[in-house]
Design goal:
The structure holds 2 protein chains of 2 kinds. Chain A is built from 5 helices and 14 strands. Chain A is an alpha+beta fold. By secondary structure, chain B is an alpha+beta fold. Chain B is built from 5 helices and 23 strands. The longest helix of chain B is centred in the last third of the chain and has 20 residues, at 289-308. In chain B, the strands form 5 sheets. An 8-stranded mixed sheet of chain B has the order 21-14-15-18-17-20-13-22. A 6-stranded antiparallel sheet of chain B has the order 7-6-9-4-1-11, with no helix packed on it. The chains are: A alpha+beta, B alpha+beta.
Chain lengths: 241, 337
């Protein structure tokens, strides 16, 4: 890709946004993650941390020592040769209890698309998702890769609170929530996996670029798995690609 | 071991330091003191590094005691009256509290966030590299929660060394407009929208907390809708949702967001903005990147100058020294026949 596709936008004097595009696109996200890796490896003077998102990389800096012009020149020089292939993405299998009190909106989503709830589960759990970014809440994973036949506009009336571990869809996106939060997305199920657990190592389970597959499990397994998750068990399994 | 006991405190009291960095890529915001200048000044008055953890009071003060040994304490940030019994402690002075005494901190006026630093800091564990409380994540602070009446905070230093300190010069008040750098999504707004934003007065609404300050005032017109594909957020970013009224994202903010950000408050003015209270009115003024960096430099120099101006409380201040020398001269003149 040429440097001219990229915009450099100030976010105050402590933030510089390198914007690769304005849409959700796996190629754009791959470039974001490749630059993220390069910046974190190079650690330019004054660099504090990065926030990779769907389509841009926010680079947070100490303005007293960061050389913005030199950084922009350096990014432009490495962009053409940026390796966008994630070396070996990890693939996680994440257990989900679908429907009922675990996924209030499963039946509504099925009705919206004129298919059975079982078909919604089949389509949702047969896709391979990619973690585009983590954000909004600690550990919350935004996923790309939803079966386009399940794309559902967000609820007109967002719920003021949804439980931790919700697995939901909104538009063409999917997500795994970490903590309880307000949400306008459609709740299909719930996972006992803690994407964020402050007293576990690792504290955060997923990282941008990871792959996710969902594994439907029976509601009778919820209580035991939820307890294990709370106690610090990872529960999500790394599987071969 | 010396322990600081909080007999009474307000509902928004927490432990905050310079912030938690390196976790925003995982969705965990930085937290940290809302007014980093206030934190730095409180810390310098007790001989600490600028970003060491302190108690952050939200508008309401409290009462504290120490047990097991003395504790040197200093308050800065919001103006909050400090006293020990009938003894009033002047602003910008540290004081050594001994067991049996009670330090009382009154309500903030003006300002919102007061910082009580203690010599050596607290002997409590960090979480992900910081003492800063992040309420929703349940990490940092004391046991991942707000402070409450009866809490006991062990101190890292049993006996403070050196002397109580005071600033020879008080930090200068500043009522200038809050300076911003436009963007990163200034192009999501119409020319009229930008003009409204920079030309109008905004009021801090009652919906203001450590996550963000919602402002009320003239609505800002978008040029092409009010949804963007989520991108990263820096502290001080000003997002404008569909209502057209701006929200300034603060220390406990989310890390990503889907509303366009019209501008971002520059780092030099964030502490001053954070001290604004609901009902206070502000204006914004746009500056260039070069001006923002120059302002950040001046802010650092100002803090360094304050640190250089520290003097032991027993010593005469610069002003009284000068008066003394003038008097001596007068004395000589008067004594000359």
């Amino acid at each position: 890709m040429t440097a001219s596709n990229v915009r450099f936008l100030d976010q105050g004097d402590c933030g510089l946004v390198v914007e690769f595009g304005e849409e959700i696109d796996p190629q754009i996200n791959a470039r974001v993650l490749a630059l993220d890796a390069a910046v974190n490896a190079a650690k330019p003077v004054g660099f504090i941390e990065t926030v990779p998102t769907y389509r841009s990389l926010l680079v947070q800096v100490d303005p007293l020592v960061f050389d913005r012009a030199a950084f922009i020149a350096w990014v432009e020089s490495i962009l053409p040769g940026l390796d966008v292939a994630v070396a070996e993405p990890r693939r996680w299998r994440v257990p989900v209890v679908y429907g009922g009190t675990y996924g209030f909106d499963l039946d509504d989503v099925a009705a919206t698309h004129g298919i059975s709830s079982a078909e919604v589960i089949a389509r949702h759990s047969s896709a391979i998702y990619r973690v585009y970014m983590l954000g909004f809440m600690p550990g919350l994973a935004y996923l790309g890769g939803l079966d386009p036949r399940l794309a559902t506009p967000r609820r007109r009336d967002p719920r003021l609170m949804t439980p931790a571990g919700i697995v939901s869809i909104g538009g063409v996106q999917a997500l795994i929530a970490s903590l309880a939060m307000p949400s306008g997305w459609h709740l299909l199920g719930r996972t006992p996996v803690r994407a964020f657990h402050p007293r576990r190592d690792p504290v955060f389970l997923f990282t941008p670029g990871d792959e996710i597959v969902f594994d439907p499990i029976g509601a009778e397994r919820w209580d035991a798995l939820d307890k294990a998750g709370e106690a610090g068990e990872i529960l999500a399994e790394l599987v071969a690609r | 071991m010396t322990v600081l006991i909080i007999d009474r405190c307000g509902p928004g009291t927490s432990i905050q330091d310079g912030g938690r960095f390196g976790q925003q890529r995982f969705g965990l915001g930085p937290s940290g003191a809302m007014d980093r200048d206030g934190l730095a000044i409180a810390n310098m008055l007790v001989g600490n590094p600028a970003d060491l953890a302190a108690i952050e009071f939200l508008m309401i003060g409290g009462t504290l005691r120490c047990e097991g040994g003395p504790a040197r304490l200093a308050l800065a940030g919001a103006v909050m009256p400090v006293s020990i019994g009938s003894r009033k402690i002047p602003p910008h002075e540290s004081v050594t509290l001994v067991p049996g005494e009670t330090l009382a901190i009154g309500a903030a006026l003006p300002g919102t966030f007061g910082y009580l630093a203690v010599c050596g800091g607290f002997a409590i564990p960090q979480s992900l590299g910081s003492h800063s409380l992040h309420v929703r994540a349940g990490i940092g602070g004391l046991d991942g929660r707000l402070l409450r009446d009866g809490d006991r905070l062990p101190l890292a230093c049993d006996t403070p060394c050196g002397a109580d300190l005071r600033l020879a010069q008080a930090p200068a008040p500043n009522t200038d407009p809050i300076r911003v750098l436009l963007g990163p999504q200034a192009d999501c707004f119409s020319a009229e929208g930008l003009e409204t934003f920079l030309g109008s007065e905004y009021t801090i609404s009652n919906q203001a907390d450590r996550m963000g300050y919602r402002l009320s005032g003239p609505t800002i017109a978008h040029a092409r809708g009010y949804n963007i594909v989520s991108d990263g957020i820096a502290t001080g970013a000003i997002q404008v949702p569909g209502t057209g009224e701006p929200i300034v994202l603060m220390a406990d903010r989310q890390t990503t967001g889907g509303y366009p950000k019209i501008a971002t408050i520059i780092s030099a003015d964030l502490p001053r903005f954070a001290q604004k209270r609901p009902g206070e009115r502000i204006r914004f003024a746009a500056v260039t990147h070069e001006e923002a960096v120059a302002a950040a430099r001046r802010r650092a120099e100002r803090l360094a100058a304050l640190r250089r101006s520290l003097q032991a409380c027993g010593e005469p201040s610069l002003d009284s020294e000068r008066l003394l020398s003038l008097n001596l001269v007068d004395g000589v003149v008067a004594g000359d026949p």
